[in-house]
Prior knowledge:
Elements (H helix, E strand, L loop, with lengths): L7 H17 L1 E4 L3 E7 L4 E2 L9 E4 L5 E6 L3 E10 L5 E12 L4 H7 L4 H18 L4 H6 L2 H16 L4 E12 L2 H51 L2 H16 L6 E3 L9 E3 L3
Helix pairs in contact: 3-5
Amino acid sequence: xxxxxxxxxxxxxxxxxxxxxxxxxxxxxxxxxxxxxxxxxxxxxxxxxxxxxxxxxxxxxxxxxxxxxxxxxxxxxxxxxxxxxxxxxxxxxxxxxxxxxxxxxxxxxxxxxxxxxxxxxxxxxxxxxxxxxxxxxxxxxxxxxxxxxxxxxxxxxxxxxxxxxxxxxxxxxxxxxxxxxxxxxxxxxxxxxxxxxxxxxxxxxxxxxxxxxxxxxxxxxxxxxxxxxxxxxxxxxxxxxxxxxxxxxxxxxxxxxxxxxxxxxxxxxxx
Length: 271
């Protein structure tokens, strides 16, 4: 094996050092990520400049880049909280969040990479206990889930907003009551539904009775008006008209004029 020229060895060493220097001085930030720059000889975490965005970056080898995911993320949490009357309620919730991009340096400096466990989850638990404690199990089971979801979101956001965390939504996925309480609430709701149905039937029957009463009163008034208008003279005229109509029929008959009651004709011999 031939020996390398004396001039070639320093060049080879320099080339190797250059490659190592370049490999240690580059950082590639992936999609949906951002980097926080830590300057070893320049004051530590950089908080007065935007974080490093996606793509390729040249960084001094004695500095360090801490990469954070900055797209929206979801965290799940199962909690046991107490209702307003002291009963234990199991709450299954999740939160949509992401770090505050412009303040990523402050988040790393003050909270660290484990900010979800240190800040976000404890705040959600505290807000859930506070909110659920205002409601009864019946309210939580039937009609107040949307309300407690909104209130937990508002209370959590109010705290983590100052902690460089952007909270987008809190979702209450399930509320689990003790079995005996759940059964009692279901029985009560069923009884209330049956009572409403019974009241509806009563109201319907009452309206039908009122309708029939109004109809009967209307007919009675009409009959009174008709009776008042039927004088003896009108009745006699109507009787004569009816007799004349009968007389025109082809059946054989005998008409005795003036022999009936009140002088009305009598028709005899119809076949």
